[in-house]
Specification:
Layout: E1 2-8, E2 14-21, E3 36-40, H1 48-67, H2 74-97, H3 101-112, H4 118-135, H5 145-157, H6 170-189, H7 220-230, H8 235-247, H9 251-255, E4 268-271, E5 274-278, E6 282-286, E7 294-297, H10 300-319, H11 341-353, H12 360-373, H13 378-385, H14 390-396, H15 398-421
Antiparallel strand pairs: 1-2, 2-3, 4-7, 5-6
Helix pairs in contact: 3-4, 4-6, 8-10, 8-12, 12-15, 13-14
C-alpha cells in the first residue's frame, strides 16, 4: 500500500514528498521489509490542489510499477550494481581468454614490441591492419583454415578493395603469410587457441601469370663500366657506391657507418650500426640486421676514394660551419641521410647510364656472386654479408657456388691428372 509524507525546509515550507510503498514482512523473521521509496518534488507555481492531484497520480503509478517488479530498493540497487560489476569482470576475463582478432593484435604487438625493431613493428602493423578488415570482430577460435586460406587467395587474385583490385606481388603475399603465421603461433603459445589454423597451410606459390624477378647481378665488365660512370659523378656518391660494391653491405649499414669505424691502414671496417626509417620515428640508428657487429675488409682502390671523400667532406662542413657528426655519408646540410637516399640516387644513375634495375641490393648480390664464383668460400662471404647462418648464403647463391665448385674441380684435375700425365 502507498502513502506519502511531506518534507519541509527551515521555514516550514513543503519542498518535497516521500512516497512509500510497503513490502510487508519477511516470512521467516517477521521483520518489516524495507519499503520502496520515491521522492516527489512539486512543480514551481502550482496550487496546493494541483500538487495534491498530481501527487496522487504519481503515487498510483509508482505503486503499480512496484507491483510489476520495476522498482528496486536501495539495497536491491546495490546488489544489482555489484552483480553488474561482477558480470563486467567476467566478460572482460572471457574477452582476455577468448579475444577477437582485433584484440589479439594488440596483445601480440605489445608482446613483440620489446624484441622487434621499429621498422619490423611497422611492417607487422600494416599487414595486420589489412587482415583486421576481414577477421577483426571474429574470435580467434572462430578463424579456421578455410577462412585464412580464402583470405590469402583473395590477396593473390585481387589484393582486396584497399589495393584497388590489383593483385599483390608474390613477395608481399609471402609477407602476409609469414606475419599471420607468427600471430597464430603466438596465440597457440599463449593458450588462446589450441592449434594454429595455418598449421598445415603451405606457403603460397606465385600466380601462373606472375614471373618471379631474378636478382640483378652484374658481370665483372658491367661493374667496371659502373665504376667508370661513377668517375663522372659527385665524389660523395662515387665513394658510397664503390663502398657498396666492395663491401656488400646493406644500405642502412652504409648510411650508419662512421669514420671512426674505418681503419685506412689495414682496410678493416667495423659494421656496428644500421640506419632505418619509419614514418612515425623518422631516420634512426639501430643494430645490424643480424643484431651483432661484424668486421669486413675493403680493397685499396675503395679506401683511396673514401680517404679523398673524407677530406672533401671535412672541408665542406668546415666552410659551411656544419658540426661534424662523424657519419661517412650525410645530406648536404650535414644531417643523417635517409636510408632510401642511395636507392633514389641509383635510380637516377641507372637512367642516366642505361643501367635498368640498379639498386643497392643488386650491388650486394653482385659482390657475393662474383666472390663465390671466383673461389671465395661460403663461410667467409656469409660473414661479410652479415647472414645469420652460412646456409642462408648457400641457398641464395647456390648457382655461384656451383661455378666455384667447378673451378675448384678443374684446379684439382690440373693438380692430379695433368701433372701425372706430364
Amino acid at each position: 500500500m502507498a502513502s506519502y509524507s511531506p518534507r519541509k525546509d527551515k521555514n516550514g515550507q513543503i519542498i518535497s514528498y516521500q512516497i512509500k510503498v510497503t513490502r510487508g514482512r519477511d516470512k521467516l523473521t517477521g521483520k518489516q521489509l524495507t519499503p520502496f521509496t520515491k521522492t516527489y518534488i512539486p512543480p514551481e507555481g502550482w496550487s496546493k490542489k494541483a500538487v495534491e492531484r498530481d501527487l496522487i497520480k504519481v503515487m498510483g503509478e509508482f505503486e503499480a510499477a512496484c507491483k510489476r517488479g520495476e522498482v528496486l530498493t536501495k539495497e536491491q540497487e546495490r546488489e544489482k550494481a555489484l552483480r553488474e560489476i561482477e558480470e563486467k569482470k567476467r566478460l572482460q576475463a572471457e574477452a582476455e581468454r577468448k579475444p577477437t582478432f582485433n584484440r589479439y593484435i594488440d596483445i601480440f604487438m605489445r608482446e613483440k614490441s620489446a624484441s622487434f625493431a621499429p621498422g619490423t613493428l611497422e611492417n607487422y602493423r600494416n599487414v595486420l591492419k589489412k587482415a583486421s578488415v576481414v577477421f577483426g570482430d571474429l574470435k580467434m577460435e572462430e578463424i579456421d583454415f578455410l577462412r585464412v586460406k580464402q583470405y590469402i587467395i583473395d590477396l593473390q587474385n585481387n589484393g582486396t578493395n584497399d589495393f584497388n583490385g590489383k593483385p599483390l606481388a608474390h613477395k608481399t603475399i609471402i609477407k602476409h603469410y609469414i606475419v599471420l603465421h607468427a600471430l597464430f603461433e603466438n596465440a597457440v603459445e599463449n593458450e588462446v587457441i589450441p592449434f594454429s589454423p595455418m598449421q598445415n597451410m603451405k606457403r603460397p606459390k606465385p600466380r601462373k601469370d606472375e614471373v618471379s624477378k631474378e636478382a640483378v647481378v652484374y658481370t665483372e665488365k658491367e661493374i667496371q663500366y659502373i665504376i667508370e660512370c661513377l668517375n663522372q659523378e659527385p665524389l660523395k656518391w662515387k665513394a658510397l657506391i664503390m663502398f657498396a660494391i666492395d663491401s656488400g653491405c646493406r644500405r642502412g649499414e652504409i648510411i650508419g657507418l662512421k669514420w671512426e669505424e674505418v681503419d685506412f691502414r689495414t682496410g678493416r671496417v667495423n659494421i656496428c650500426r644500421n640506419a632505418q626509417y619509419t614514418a612515425g620515428k623518422g631516420t634512426y640508428i639501430s643494430t645490424p640486421k643480424s643484431r651483432k657487429n661484424r668486421v669486413i675488409y675493403l680493397n685499396r682502390p675503395v679506401l683511396a676514394v673514401l680517404s679523398e671523400w673524407k677530406r672533401q667532406q671535412a672541408l665542406l662542413h668546415f666552410s659551411q660551419r656544419i658540426p661534424n657528426n662523424g657519419f661517412c655519408f650525410t645530406q648536404d646540410n650535414g644531417q643523417m641521410m635517409n636510408p632510401q637516399a642511395p636507392t633514389s640516387y641509383l635510380s637516377r644513375f641507372g637512367k642516366k647510364y642505361n643501367l635498368p634495375g640498379i639498386h643497392p641490393h643488386a650491388l650486394r648480390h653482385t659482390m657475393a656472386t662474383l666472390s663465390i664464383a671466383n673461389g671465395a668460400d661460403i663461410v667467409s662471404i656469409s660473414e661479410k654479408l652479415g647472414h645469420a647462418e652460412p646456409s642462408i648464403t648457400l641457398n641464395v647463391y647456390s648457382h655461384a657456388n656451383e661455378e666455384a665448385q667447378q673451378r675448384a674441380n678443374e684446379v684439382l684435375a690440373d693438380a692430379i691428372y695433368n701433372r701425372k700425365q706430364a
